[in-house]
Every structure is written in C-alpha cells, then in structure tokens.
Amino acid sequence: MLASTMLFHLLGLWRQGGDCLAKFTKWVMNSAARIWAVVAILSMLLAVWQGHERNKMATYARQTKRAWDNARKDAEQARQQTEIQYRNLAHVSDLTYAQGVAAGDARLAAYIAAHRVQPSAQAHPTSPSQDPNPTIPAIAPDQAVVASIGDLQACNADYTYARAAYEWARGLAQ
Q: Which residues of the chain have pLDDT under 50?
C-alpha cells in the first residue's frame, strides 16, 4: 500500500516537472534576450564543470608523476645496490684470484723442488731442427721430462684463473 502511494506521488511529481519544464521553455522562447540569458547560464555552468574536470585531471597528473618519480627512485636505488653487490663480488673474486696465484706459485715451487724439474732446452724457433731426421725413440728413457717449468706455470695460472672464475660465477647465482 505504501509503495503504490509513493509510486503515485512520484508519477505526479514527474508529470508536474514536465509541465513546469514545458512552461519554462515556452516562456524562454518568447524573448530573444531570455534565450541568450539561458545560453549564457548554460555556458557558465559548462565552464564551471570544465574547471572542475581540469582540476581533477591536474590532480591525477600530479599523482601519476609522483608515482613515476617514486618508482624511478626505487629502481635507481635497486640498481645502485646491485652494482655495489657485484663490485664487492668482483673485489672478493680478485682477492681470491690473487691468493690462489700466490698459493699456486708456492705449491708449484714446492713441486718443482721436490721433483727436480729442470728447464727444458728449447731450440730457437727460427733455427732448423738440430737433428735432421727426428724420430720417436722405441723405448722412453727412465726419467722422461713430462713438462717443462713453463708448462707447469701455464697450467697453474690456467687452473687458478678457472677456479676464480668458477667461484665468481657461483657468487652470481646466490
């Protein structure tokens, strides 16, 4: 019952509003000055609405710029922290390599002394071979020199470098 009464009143108000709007439109159309006055009022309302929208968009632009600036600042801080981390890792790797070279040189010197490795006699690369007919002996001598000191030093340097590179790469994965 209450709902039907409210609906009846709403329809009455709607009809009265439409009647008022029709009377107002008729009244405005009777004079050019009134038409211009309504156009001016509508223009002012439109200008106020556009000003409100402009302020809303300016606020949105400031918020967006602030968010971008914060994101850029955070990204720069993350980049700097990562760069510091990688520089520290590189420094540690350099120290590890230097320690490995020193330890390797000490081990190599001890090995050379213990096994009495002698420097091999090397022929001058531009001179012809001393033996005109080199052959591989059928029986190897009892104390054959497997490597020269230079070969051992090259192997030691290669191993030390490879070990340092391996440790550096393991540090990147962590």
A: 123
Going 73 to 79 to 82 to 86, the CA torsion angle's sign is negative
Segment holding 121, helix H or strand E: none
Rounded to an integer, what distance in angstroms lies between the CA atom of residue 120 and that of residue 145? 8
Tell me how far apart the alpha carbons of residues 26 and 19 are, in angstroms, rounded to a whole number: 11
pTM for the predicted model, two decimal places: 0.47
Tokens of 44: 């002012």
Q: What is the pLDDT of residues 109-118, one digit of tens each?
A: 888 788 776 6
Task: Provide the token pair at 37.
Answer: 């006055």
Q: What is the pLDDT of residue 66?
A: 97
Structure tokens at 96: 């590890």
> What is the predicted pLDDT for the residue at 110?
85
Q: Give Cα 174 distance to the centre of its chain.
A: 17
Helix 32-115 and helix 2-29, axial crossing angle in degrees, nearest 10: 110
Q: Do the Cβ atoms of 108 and 152 come closer than 8 Å? A: yes
